[in-house]
Amino acid sequence: MEFGQTVAQRDRYQTIRDAGEYDWQRLGELGVLGAAIPVEHGGQGLGALDTALVFEAAGYGCHDTGLIFAAGAHLFATALPIAEFGSDSQKKKLPALCDGTLIGANAMTEPDAGSDIGALKTTAVRKDDGYVLNGMKSFVSNGPIADVYVTYAVTDPNAGHLGTTGFVVDTGTPGLVRSEPFGKLGMNGCAAGTVEFRDCVVPDDAVLGNGSLVFQHGMLWERACLFAIYLGVQDRLIERCIRHVKRRKQFGKRLSTFQSVSNRIVDMKLRLESARLLLYKACWAIDQDDVAVLPAALSKLAVSQAAVQTALDAVELFGGRGYQTDEGIEEHLRDAVGGLLFSGTSDIQRQLAALELGL
Amino acid sequence: MSDEYHRDVLEKLTELVRDEFLEGEDEELTATTPLMEWGILKSIETTRLVTYVRTEFGVRVPPAQVTTENFRDLESIAGLVTALRG
To answer: How far away is chain A from the Cα of B16, in angstroms, using its nearest Cα?
Structure first.
């Protein structure tokens, strides 16, 4: 394992971080949407660590964290599973997913099933040359606007979590009904809603693979790479806090001269750098084809918790201004809370880590 | 040697399922008990079992091998571990 970035990594990081303007098409042009997709399918062909650096740069440069999160959900839970498990005809969608022409969404979560794929209620029943899907997906990031969905349904009720199958379903398929975006605490640049399948008929070629296998693969990459967004966000936020405390005065002295203030910022930095190393280690393990479940779970825990605490610290450092919505500080806290939940809650990460420790 | 290894794996896996997953209530557990169908192997138990195989036998089960066929019963899992050991 080597430390330090190569010239190519540094150039890529700076290009994305300093892009200035960001929207969906621009993320496609910058290579964010297809970072981990093989070059022959229109992507950048990057490994997990390089992909994480791409999302870290985007998290720093783009102040709309929800937009970058939407890109992560699109890449890690839709495009990447298609690249890894998809048929040749499914892979024909990849160039358009990489350049931003198509938007992908992962429809997994149900009212009674989040991380537990064995608890899914959505069914896919064999009929003629295909399947009939029925069920409700209750929280789908990019759901209201996506063109392509990767979804999961029970195909063999006797086989538990291994009796599920992943499917690729296009928007416009009769019986696929999606909601308007619903309101949520943060990540407002990412539209989320429900997706319902009502006697939705899909052909055999919609089958992506064993649901458990496809889902675990996507979640591993999400836990490791997607959370790099929060590293970039925290880098930016800490820099802003430092500028603020060096400028603002109280009792005739700059805030930075109060040890309780400077210590708080040092703790923010310590938390960030510790989490960063865990995340890089998880990505490195994926790139080495090593068992990455434990490092990815620990990384996800550390990064998501650091993001919340650092955002809370920033609100305190900015005081009343940090609490006001027009200052752009409190939104970091709202955006960070979702990180405790998606890709598996903190409790699930601890459960995964405990299992990996043989507990 | 392979048969002996297979028997050893089967014995240890049976012990794991009996003691950890069924908490000793194993009156009907055999090498061909349908683990998925009977709800003994859910996703968390499967993860524990895969981790156990890695730490106890030094055998890494690739995700693509975690299938209903390979995890149907203890006999199938022991067969998979023996085959992966090479």
So the answer is: 11
Domain identity same for A196 and A235 = no
Q: Which residues fall within 8 angstroms of residue A199, CB to CB, at 6 or more apart?
A: A132, A133, A134, A175
Q: Assess B36–A contact: CB distance below 8 Å, yes or no.
A: yes
Contact B43 A355 (CB under 8 A): no
Domain boundary among A76, A99, A122: A99
A203-240: pLDDT as tens digits: 999 999 999 889 989 999 999 999 999 999 999 999 99
Distance CA A23, CA A12 (A): 18
* pLDDT grade for B14, boundaries at 50, 70 and 90: very high
Q: How many CB pairs under 8 A join A and B?
A: 49
pLDDT of residue B27: 72
E strand residue ranges, A248-325: 249-250, 253-254
In a domain, A217, yes or no: no
Domain end: A57, A79, A99, which one? A99
Considering CB atoms only, which of B47, B51, B68 is closest to A162?
Answer: B68
Whether B47 and A156 lie within 8 Å, measured CB to CB: no
Nearest CA in chain A to B50: A356
Work out how many domains chain A is built from and give that number: 3
Domain of residue B70, CATH code: 1.10.1200.10
- Residue A104 pairs in a beta bridge with A148
Identify the residue with better confidence: A188 or B2. A188
Among candidates B39, B54, B67 on the partner chain, residue whose Cβ is nearest the Cβ of A291: B54
Structure token digits, residue A279: 């995340």
**A222 assigned to active site:** yes
- Count of domains for chain B: 1
Domain that holds residue A307: 227-356
Residue closest to B44 by CA, chosen among B21, B16, B24, B23: B21
Question: Domain range for residue B72?
Answer: 2-85
| Confidence class for position A1, pLDDT limits 50, 70, 90 | low
* Contacting residues of B for A216, CB less than 8 Å apart: 63
Q: Which residue has the higher pLDDT, B59 or B26?
A: B59
**Min CA distance, A297 vs chain B (Å)?**
14
In the 8-state DSSP scheme, what is residue A289? Answer: T
Judge whether B57 is closer than 8 Å to chain A, CB to CB.
no
CATH code of residue A118: 2.40.110.10
| A52 and A119, same domain (yes or no) | no
The verdict on A325 touching B (C-beta cutoff 8 Å) is no
Confidence check on the interface: ipTM exceeds 0.90, yes or no:
no
Helix (H) or strand (E) holding B14: helix B2-16
Interval A84-97: pLDDT, tens: 999 999 999 999 99
Residue A52 in 3-state DSSP? Answer: helix
